[in-house]
Amino acid sequence: MKGRWLCKALEKYHGLTAMEKKLAEYKCNTNEAIQLKLVRFPEELEDDNTTFNPEYSHQVFGDDEVAFGYKGLKILLYYIAGNLSTLFRIEYTSKVNEKFDCVEADDVESKIREIIPPGFCTNTDDFVSLLEKEVNFKPFGTLLHTYSVHNEEAGDDITYQIHKADMTCPGFREYHERLQTFLMWFIETASFIDVDDERWNYFLVFEKYNKDGATLFATVGYMTVYNYYVYPDKTRPRVSQMLILPPFQGEGHGAQLLETVHRYYMSSPTVLDITAEDPSENYVKLRDFVLVKLCKDLLCFSPGRLMQGFSQEMVVEAQQKLKINKKKQRELAKMRRCLRPEELTNQLNQIDLNMQHEQLEESFQQLVSDYRRVLERLAQA
User: Fold this and answer.
1) Which of 267, 270, 312, 271 is CA-nearest to residue 294?
2) pTM
3) Strands 200-211 and 214-230: what pairing?
4) I need a surface site. Which of 112, 130, 191, 216 has the fewest CB within 10 A?
5) Which residues contact 222 (CB under 8 A, 6 or more apart)?
6) CA dist., res. 254 & res. 291, Å (int)
7) Does the pLDDT value for residue 6 go beyond 80?
8) Ramachandran region of residue 234, left (φ > 0), alpha (ψ -120 to 50) or beta?
């Protein structure tokens, strides 16, 4: 009797496993299924080398970052490089059907429609027609900075521009709705902002390029900054979100953008200091490089002064002229925000003295490594 029960149990187990295996064939990793492009020329539509994928898709497809119900799923999100007019199409080789009891495919289209604004194309011909009108696209807002980056592949210098825009710029609202969709794929905790709040500033990076003898512009990245009021007559700009699109990463555009934004606010007598909202480790490293670069222009940081060692005068001048917000210990600051005073005290008391020394040494070595990286990058700038 026991043997018969065991056989039935094993049969049921193997049956479930077979079904699970069958269903697993219809599970797709959405980070791989989503295919993004920034299109300049029609031939790029079929060029896999211009395709890039998200880093994250959990905010749209859940923590598992999986879409169920399809084999060979492709979620095509192609953008015209400048004005970001969008082509959205879903392709797959097969889809679950009535053979699977009580199983339905995920509504992938509805999930994508929740984050991309209406007015997108669904077929290639319409998209190519819009691409032909791209010559009319021009950057929004006020030009703040122009710089060049040498491109080894092209064997030439490529020119980039940084502009400051706001919602009063004609067409910018619609453009921004398309631009911000990239946040969902490349910033882990991204959210869309309230564009009707006039205290937002937008800083945009564009590449200048030639097409059939005409000068066109491609979107490279952007930053949003919120201007907080500080009593009685100051403001505190806070960097909210910053993104350089993947095809342009690693070329120094983030540093150019952050430095331009800092210089813009540094020049304003009403700005108290410049902060950042929950900065990532990568942002902190970038900010350290930019601020050290800016410090080179200050009298207190001249070679002769540096040889005399660190001084409080350096702190004061950097804070006053560069509008640097005084840094705090990040982890301790988080603990203070999240814990009640008695909980914080207990937490700190629980840390063994030896462990404190180990953590301090680890932090010190990491800091030395970070400083060395900043100095090496500064030497190449």
Assistant:
1) 267
2) 0.84
3) antiparallel
4) 191
5) 179, 202, 203, 204, 205, 242, 243, 257
6) 13
7) no
8) beta
Residues of the chain above pLDDT 90, percent: 68
Q: Report the Cα–Cα distance between both ends of the chain, in Å, rounded.
A: 79
pLDDT in tens, 118-134: 999 999 999 999 999 99
Residue pair 275/237 in contact by the 8 Å Cβ criterion = yes
**Per-residue tokens: 234:** 């100051």
In 3D space, the residue among 86, 320, 280, 291 whose CA is nearest the CA of residue 190 turns out to be 280
The pLDDT, as a whole number, for residue 187 is: 94
The catalytic position among 11, 25, 109, 277 is 277
Using alpha carbons only, how large is the chain's radius of gyration in Å?
A: 26
Nearby residues of 175 by Cβ (< 8 Å), 6 or more positions away: 83, 84, 140
Q: Mean of the pLDDT values across residues 49-64? A: 97
Q: What is the mean pLDDT of residues 303-326?
A: 90
The whole-angstrom separation of Cα 351 and Cα 341 is 16
Q: How confident is the model at residue 9 (pLDDT cuts 50, 70, 90)?
A: very low
Supply 99's token pair: 């053979």
Find, among 212, 213, 81, 220, the residue nearest to 147 by Cα. 220
Q: Is 132 tagged catalytic?
A: no
